[in-house]
Structure formats: structure tokens, C-alpha cells
């Protein structure tokens, strides 16, 4: 019994000695990383620092308070080239930066104050526009931050059902389109979200999509034309009869492409589409066409080049700018022969 007691006391002495040695060897960490740099970003702060060479240091801890007053933190290893704290508001933040060892012990901290720039989703929310179009509404926005955001648009669809369209984008100049809407005015609710779910305030925008109509041809007149055949004259272009047609010269002369004609509508119209019908059952005509428009027959705007198929059905070409025009110039650019022809021209818009 006496021997056991001696061994027990001896063990306690050894434990006390070991504990005393551990206390004497307690790790002392440097006071925070050196050369701390902080750059204010869009809704974020980007930190860099000199990570200490001390082998006991394994991470840097950055602590701050959110808008609710709750303490938040992120840890960054020695291998992180930069440290980004994201999801921040446009206000002043005090960041507490300290070093940590593998046991979670922390050094004394250093304080850095930074005010981030406005977050991307709030930047974008200030730029969103809704533009009426024919049978649709265009959604436009700017995003100088080039960060991913979600533009949300709530509306009532053509069947009277509530719907939300979401456009996820990081494009500097963004565009979307809502197509399932009636041609009546309604109020759209627009807000922008960031990837973590933060939302901008909603903006209510009232827009009425345009109703697209086939325009009446009663007063149209071809006022200029490259040339025509006697049996394929210009007035056949708008006589609402697809069995008749205009034909570029082929018998008395053989001019090559381009071939063109200009139609005077006699009044300005908003044009959404141009419809062309080829000469029926003949595949020897043009394969590429261009359009331009004017309000005064002097100053012209190019409206685009398009492929043209040699088929009987009407081919419609969308003019995305919805130009307001009085004069339309149609130019046949190329084809399998030197000549071309066309049975009918239609215009759509308001």
C-alpha cells in the first residue's frame, strides 16, 4: 500500500512538471499580418497582406459586423493570394484582422476601416428600363460592375396569369424580352437580386406593348427603281396579287446586281417587319436582300442584310429598331443569275 502511494505521488509530480513545461512553451503569435492593404469594391472589400513566416501561423481571421449587428468572420489560409469579403453594403465597416494557429489560438488584432462601393445589384436596379415593342416588352439594363445579378420582372401574361421573368446576367449592356403579354398597358414590378438573395427595392413601371398590324397599301407608290421589264413592272410589287411580279431587266438589257426599288408610303409609319413574296414557282431570283429607310428620301438608315430563300411563301424580316419611316428601299444584293424578281411587298407595324 505504501509503495502504491509513493508511485501515485511521483506520477502527480511528473504531470505537474510536464504542465509547467508546456506553459513555459506557450506559442506567441505575431500581432496580425503585415502590410495590410484594403481596396473597396462593388459591395465587397478586397484585402491583401504579408503572411508571416512563423510556422505556427496557419490562417488569417477577418471579423466584422453585418447590418443587424451580428459578428461575422472569414478565415483565409496562407495560400490565399487575396481575401475578399463580399455581400457588403455601401457603409463604413471596421474589420478586425488577426492571425491564428492550428489550435485556433488568435493573435492580437489589427483594425482596418473601409467603405465598400454600392453593391452590383443596387447599381443595376437604378438602370433598368422597360421599352414597349411589337407584341413584347424589352428589358434593358447596365452593369458596369460585370458581376452576376438577377433582374426580376413580375407581370400578368396574355392569359391573365401572374408571372415572373428572371434574367441572370453579368453583361455590361444587358437586354431581355418578355413576349407573352397583351397589347394593353399594365404595371410591371421590377427588382434586382444578388447571388446571396439580397434584393433591391421594387420599382413599378407601366408599359403598353405595341399591336402589330399589316399596313394598308392603298397610297403606296414606287418612286425610284433600278430598272424593270415591260412584263414585270414596279406596280406589281404592291397590287396584293402574288401571281404578278416585278422583274429586273433580262431581255433588252442584262445589268448585274444590285437591283433596287424605293416605295413611298405617303406618310410616316413605325415599321416592325418587312414581308417579301418571291415570284411563284421560280427559283432563279435573289438570295440576299438589304433594307434601308428614310423620312425625307435624302437621309437614309441601313436596316440590315438578310438571306432570301427561293420559296413561294412570304418571308418576314424583323427590324429590331422599329424605325419610323416614310420611304423604304429594298435592294437585291446577289443571286444565282444576273436578274431577279419579286411578287409582293408587305409592311407590318403601326
TrEMBL record:
Matches recorded under InterPro entries: DUF4959, DUF5126, FA58C, Galactose-bd-like_sf, Ig-like_fold
UniProt key word Signal: yes
Protein name listed in UniProt: DUF5126 domain-containing protein
Signal sequence range: 1-23
Membrane-spanning intervals of the chain: none
Gene3D superfamilies for this protein: Galactose-binding domain-like (2.60.120.260), Immunoglobulins (2.60.40.10)
SUPFAM superfamilies: Galactose-binding domain-like (SSF49785)
Segments forming domain F5/8 type C: 210-350
Coiled-coil region: none
Keywords: Signal
Amino acid at each position: 500500500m505504501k509503495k502504491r502511494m509513493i508511485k501515485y505521488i511521483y506520477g502527480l509530480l511528473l504531470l505537474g512538471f510536464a504542465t509547467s513545461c508546456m506553459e513555459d512553451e506557450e506559442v506567441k503569435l505575431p500581432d496580425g499580418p503585415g502590410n495590410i492593404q484594403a481596396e473597396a469594391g462593388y459591395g465587397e472589400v478586397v484585402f491583401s497582406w504579408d503572411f508571416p513566416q512563423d510556422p505556427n501561423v496557419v490562417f488569417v481571421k477577418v471579423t466584422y459586423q453585418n447590418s443587424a449587428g451580428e459578428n461575422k468572420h472569414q478565415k483565409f489560409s496562407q495560400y490565399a493570394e487575396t481575401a475578399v469579403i463580399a455581400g457588403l453594403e455601401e457603409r463604413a465597416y471596421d474589420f478586425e484582422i488577426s492571425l491564428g494557429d492550428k489550435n485556433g489560438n488568435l493573435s492580437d488584432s489589427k483594425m482596418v476601416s473601409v467603405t465598400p462601393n454600392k453593391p452590383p445589384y443596387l447599381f443595376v436596379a437604378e438602370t433598368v428600363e422597360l421599352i414597349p415593342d411589337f407584341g413584347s416588352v424589352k428589358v434593358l439594363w447596365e452593369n458596369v460592375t460585370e458581376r452576376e445579378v438577377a433582374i426580376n420582372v413580375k407581370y400578368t401574361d396574355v392569359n391573365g396569369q401572374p408571372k415572373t421573368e428572371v434574367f441572370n446576367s453579368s453583361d455590361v449592356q444587358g437586354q431581355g424580352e418578355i413576349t407573352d403579354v397583351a397589347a394593353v398597358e399594365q404595371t410591371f414590378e421590377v427588382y434586382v437580386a444578388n447571388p446571396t438573395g439580397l434584393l433591391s427595392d421594387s420599382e413599378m413601371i407601366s408599359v403598353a406593348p405595341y399591336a402589330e398590324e399589316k399596313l394598308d397599301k392603298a397610297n403606296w407608290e414606287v418612286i425610284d427603281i433600278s430598272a424593270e421589264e415591260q412584263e414585270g413592272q414596279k406596280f406589281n410589287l404592291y397590287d396584293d396579287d402574288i401571281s404578278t411580279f416585278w422583274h429586273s431587266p433580262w431581255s433588252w438589257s442584262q445589268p448585274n446586281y444590285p437591283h433596287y426599288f424605293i416605295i413611298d408610303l405617303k406618310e410616316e409609319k413605325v415599321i416592325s417587319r418587312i414581308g417579301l413574296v418571291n415570284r411563284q414557282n421560280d427559283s432563279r431570283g435573289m438570295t440576299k436582300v438589304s433594307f434601308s429607310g428614310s423620312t425625307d428620301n435624302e437621309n437614309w438608315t441601313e436596316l440590315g442584310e438578310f438571306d432570301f430563300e427561293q420559296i413561294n411563301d412570304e418571308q418576314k424580316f424583323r427590324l429590331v429598331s422599329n424605325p419610323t419611316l416614310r420611304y423604304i428601299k429594298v435592294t437585291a444584293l446577289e443571286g444565282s443569275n444576273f436578274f431577279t424578281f419579286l411578287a409582293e411587298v408587305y409592311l407590318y407595324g403601326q
